[in-house]
Write a structure and sequence with these properties.
This protein starts with 11 loop residues before the first strand and ends in a 9-residue tail after the last strand. The protein is 41% helix and 21% strand. The protein has a single domain, classed as Gcn5-related N-acetyltransferase (GNAT) (Aminopeptidase). By secondary structure, the protein is α+β, with helices and mostly antiparallel strands.
Length: 218
């Protein structure tokens, strides 16, 4: 069972309002600056500026809105989660357009696009081996760096998982740090596949939570 948030962090989880998309993208850019995958996708410093990451975040958010749902904290937008619902909508060709947009936002051109292709091909293979059935996917879980570890992650995660459980499908996500794997294990996931991103990228784990999975009580 999730612990109550401190009063100063009390939040409601709502669908992302259209007039707050830029704010959400800026948060996603800020929160992803220390993500292990960023140096692989943007090897040059100019591709890792907060502005570049925020523009890439806009593409990620648009992809989530088209293929699933984007949840945010309210009234203060300091956390968000991007969920993909089961189905072919988040496959080709929409995803290819998203890959091009992300590479362009990071200033990486064709080389960046090819890195995105290799990355997603590797993750798709591993994900299919570990969860071949139709399932939902948590694409991103981001919290303002100053608010991390204080319960907002759990609020976002459990809200989305409750919605997914109501549909009766499993959920997967990809982790790039061992500590993150353990975090999701505490919330009913287990590792079903792992590997290394091609050409010097980080190690990754695919974790899966069955429909109706339960968290470890705290």
């Amino acid at each position: 069972m999730r612990r109550p948030l401190p009063v100063e962090l009390s939040r409601e989880i709502v669908p992302l309002p259209s007039d707050r998309r830029h704010q959400a993208a800026d948060l996603l850019g800020l929160a992803s600056a220390d993500h292990p995958l960023v140096p692989f996708l943007a090897p040059t410093a100019h591709g890792r500026t907060r502005q570049a990451l925020a523009v890439a975040g806009q593409s990620l958010i648009g992809f989530g809105e088209a293929c699933g749902a984007v949840d945010v904290t309210s009234p203060i937008l300091d956390g968000l989660a991007i969920w993909l619902t089961p189905g072919q909508a988040w496959q080709l060709p929409l995803r290819r357009a998203w890959e091009v947009q992300v590479a362009a936002a990071l200033g990486q051109g064709m080389a960046g696009f090819l890195r995105c292709l290799r990355l997603l091909a590797q993750l798709d293979r591993a994900g299919h081996e570990g969860a071949p059935e139709p399932h939902a996917r948590l694409l991103a879980l981001a919290v303002h760096p100053a608010r991390r570890g204080r319960g907002l992650e759990e609020t976002l995660l459990e809200t989305g998982l409750a919605r997914i459980d109501a549909t009766g499908v499993a959920c997967t996500t990809v982790c790039f740090q061992a500590a993150t794997v353990l975090y999701f294990v505490d919330h009913g996931f287990r590792a079903v596949a792992d590997g290394d991103v091609p050409q010097g990228g980080p190690h990754f784990w695919v974790v899966r939570r069955p429909a109706g999975g339960t968290s470890i009580p705290r």
